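Feature request, filed as a ticket because there's no other form

It would be nice if the structure record came with a short human-readable summary line next to the tokens. Right now we just get the raw output. Example of a typical job, pasted below so the devs can see what we mean:
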Amino acid sequence: MIATSTDCLSVEELNRLLDGQLSSNEFDSASKHVDQCEQCQSRIPEKWDALSPIANADSEEDSVLAESACQFAVAQLMTAGAKVAHTSADLPIDQIGPYEILGQLGQGGMGMVCLARHNRLKRQCAIKLLPPHRVMEPGWLDRFDREMTTIAALEHPGIVRATDAGTHSDWHYLVMEYLDGMDVGKIAHRLGSLPVADACEIARQSAVALMHVHETGLIHRDVKPSNLMLTRDGTVKLLDLGLVLAGDDPLATDDRLTTVGHLMGTLPAMSPEQLLDSRKVQPVSDIYSLGATLYRLISGRWPQANEGGLAARVLAITSESNRSTPLPLSRLESSVKSELESFVGQMMHRQPDQRPSGSIVAERLATWSGEANLKALLKRAESTPASDAPITPSLPLATNPASPPPGNGKHTWTAWLGPLGWFAAAILLATVVIQIKTDKGLVTVTTDGKDTQVAVEKNVQDSTEETVSPSTEKSLTADIESPDSEKIYLGENLDYWLGVFRREQQIERIGQAMRAVELLSRNTPKREEAARITLELANEYGTQIIDDTPDQNGGGFGGQSSPNQRFMGYLTQTFDNYLPTPGLRPLGETLADGNERAQITAILLLNHFVTGVHVNAVYEGRLETAKASFATEALTPEGRVTIETLLKQIGIASGELKPLAADATAKDRYAMTPAREAVSSRETAWVTAVRIIEMSGPKISPPSWIADYVQEQVDEAVADYEHREIDPETEQTKWDYSDPNAPYGFSSGGFGGGPQMITTPTDPDWLLSRELFLSAIEMRREGRLDLPIQFAAETLAHPRFNWYSMDGSSLNDLVQALATIDPEAPSLIAFHLDRSFQEMDRQYQASQNAEWLHPLTYFGQRLKEGLASVYTTHVEQPEQAHDRLERLVKSLPNLSMYQQSTEGNKDIWNAMLNDLKQRFESE
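Raw output as currently delivered:
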């Protein structure tokens, strides 16, 4: 029987604890006791010494590793006999581009940083390397590319400077200035607490650099000591811009704590808003992290200490309580003045709007940094060997080892939440998954606010660098070497979570099961079954509308999204991880055999895969993965059969959705009824199939349904066009200015005021999408369908036609193609463009309301790509056209949002005016 929380553990029990041979309850009780007991800590067996290189590493994150649960997990890795692919001295490559690799400076999750020298210039530099295998993993190349572009865009003496970037032998690399110095994390570890003036000067310089980041519209997101470099001349440089983002977070699924994945950021330094939802970060989130960093540098410990375990620390940061208030700095460092103590507290204020800006931080910290000597600080740190560094315990030890911890060893870390209790814990934490990398493997700590699980996975040998296998995670409740051990998520195995799908109706619980099943099924024989069972739920909950924040249960106009929308939020966050293998097979089966809801869902998921979309953002790395997947499949006969089968299944889904789509009415255009979802899904299916064929290459022939769909859509559009309403005054197509949202109970522009006047024509029913229009033109050139030239010309010149350039397509080429069909095409395009200008001029002259000129801004891209010359060359009465266009252009500054929407088109309009003037003057 294991010792209770009030009894010390025997040596045998300590060994069983370290070997992971305790049950979940026994482990929890024993680990909590060791946290509080100096006597037990002093009697830990010698194998514990294997942990010291990690637990005492030169890193400010050692406070997280000091948690008993994490330490035991790391000890498992250290004693499991796992082999390392290569030592830090080994280099995977000795030459990259024009740079000779001289040695390794550091290594992290994204790759390796090496010291290098330019072959010709003989100048030393630092090179960050992204290995080839990382390029194919979703998100890594995006983050690496983002760091390259970010550093290149941020030119500031307080930010590391980029000098070059490129690709060599499938290695992506970023060349940066070589900084001769030491990162502040190592300095703080070697020296313990820093002199107040030095700490304030480091933070002051960092604030100045952050001001430049924020002025550029970016947020650093990971401000901490190890991301600050102190150089020999006393300059502090901001490092690691791989998480710098603007606006919404494109790494939302990997970044948010409510999702299985890496914690992007450093727990002790993260602001409450970043910890709860990383998409809510703002510039003052960096200020919080800088305040926490300053607190750490002055006191030698993080603001939220580690008492009570990891879950308690998360709650301490994210909740309002006495526990969440850090100890006053003056109690930890007597030389801290009350004004500085108060200001650091203001930097770490729980409410973002109460924190100072970067400029104020820089100004105020100058008050306390006058006596700083950073050059001397660096020399002192360099002269202090790492082995002699003072170890500041991040986990204070109990003064009375015999006294039981609060609650007699039971889960009590939410007791201080007061009347909120477990409900508050669940709301604040949801499901938190934090992964901690070590040089031997990965430690995963999972909590749902009620229970905390720790799991480990060993590294697998890799030819290029130490990597973490995503497939060998094992619970500490089983022997790590045992072939019969299972992976556990929140205390349950894969079969349990698969069963949740069959018996659970609560969407949040289903979402939790999706995450658990995806994580636990990795590299197991049940991976495809997991994907299939996950997707089966779409038969009940599938829809096109996605709540991207399902854990928050919000997002709709009523303040709450539907269960179906939240289901889609969870599904789109997790199912991407099954693609391309084994997820494509269940997707194909669902396309062919699922009901309408499931087919709509499968089409959406497949489209996200082929377009690189993940949680409402496009990732180049995901897009390249899709391209490589289909291109590789197309190389073999078996692979081509797989692709052709998938294309056939897409066609089956499109065909089976056709009856439902036929029920769509005109009003469904702006409300996602089931019929409208079917219409949209059928077009998405067609677009997706076309992209798969493009990615697969010439050996894949398009199935007949693809051309049939184009013919069907063109026939319907032309029929609508021929029955369009004609304006009796102009004898041309009557433009509809009705409010498309009015039938649904709200009017356009109704945020904070009354409805706005509609000054842009509503999309006509006959307007084709860009993709369908281009396909129709090509099929018309090949003689495979009938396309009236009047219809094509008016489509191309309509204000609402959604034109954008991609795939090398050009409007010049399109106009030439139409001209080969009918030589009158350019004149017809010019006529309909002029009709648009006349309509805007007429409405503006009658009302003197510049908002009627807004449709003119829609033409900018099309004019630049060729329609400008078509108009000026072929429009009738060029002098009148010139005077009309001149009136419109001169009135544009009166248009609201003028600077943002129209300034860039001024050159093209001036060029058109000049061409028109030359034409009528020469006639």
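Something like this underneath would help us a lot:
Residues 714-747+755-922 form one domain.
The chain has a mean pLDDT of 74.
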